[in-house]
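Q: Got a minute? One more chain.
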Amino acid sequence: MFGVAFAMAGKGGAGGAGGLGSMGALVPLILMFVIFYFLLIRPQQKQAKKHKETLANLKKGDFVLTTGGIYGRIYAINGPIVVLEIADKVRVKLAKGQVARLASPEEAQPPKAEG
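A: Always. Here it is, folded:
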């Protein structure tokens, strides 16, 4: 019975670092958050900022690729709406946010038929 009482009595002479023990458990958690921030969150924020700048700088005549995989040339921009010409006299209205990136004119051309 006295053995159980001594076991439950607590730490012996090594109780001096009791306040730092709970803080020591937070250090790996904070370190994981910092690593997570620099590997995932920060690059995604940079990419979103670059995409936003690209959308703000769109102008008539730019060749673009949409998020749906359609290449085309910007025919007109009316606020949040982009009119995209995807073939001769074929125009499609899209939300400006659906433009994924700028494309080169060669990239936007249809493949040439062989034969």
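A: Residues 18-56 form the longest helix (39 residues).
Q: Perfect, thanks.
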